[in-house]
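Mods, move this if it's the wrong board.
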Amino acid sequence: MYKRGSKSLIGLMVLALSLASLASASTVIIAADGVGANDSIFGLSASTTGSTMIGLLSVTVFFTGGGNSGPTTWSACSSGVFCGQASGAIGNGVWTLTQLGDPGAVTNSTSPDTSAVNPWTLTNTSTTVGIASVALSGIVSPSSGVVFDRDLNTGGQSGTPGSNFGVDYTFKSESGGNSPYTATVTYNNKATIIAAPPCIGFGTNSGVGCGDVWGSVNFSFGSPFIAATTVTPTTWLFFQDTDMVQSPEPITVGITGAGLLTLMIAYRRRRRAS
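Not the wrong board. Structure tokens:
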């Protein structure tokens, strides 16, 4: 039998855990989709790593108090063969965004958002200038680039053909600076496949896309993302799946093959008729 004091203590513990859960859940806020123009692409390949995005992904960091890094091209890093990064000067320090491995790798394909394994890592070593927001942009051309693939709470359904399941922008961990942080995320420039194939599992197409792949994503912090000391960077880890934009060759081959098959059928019919 529980004493009244024990019940009160348990009640306070439950309340504390509930508030902690709510704080964690509100760390990332997915805002309404942006209104930028759609990005038309030929197709997608779901397999990416930090290194396959080299030269394709562009990162722009916006500073507190104004100014920005300008578009910074994704490049190689020294943490491993599958690693990529972007970095630049900020105040009296350096900002760095790194991805090691496949950002779409999960341990449970029916629940991608809760089982992703390879986070992106943002760091800032500056104590004088904070990061206000970060913009990631991936479309280079209709046949080249990177898109950001969402799951949209569908339990691992593909949506856009070629994209496989996605992983929404999801918080993993943070440290230093003004943490805990709150990040507001906006997806912009919906990616649509030019041939407009039917969506898989959810969504409709008709040339407007399935709504799960996007050409850019922005996230802004509720308080300056800044280091407390020059030797202790502030860090922010998050998950976000990406896919590679495909060249038109596979589609072109398919169309050409279908055309040849039609010609062969017509030729045989004419021979039989004669």
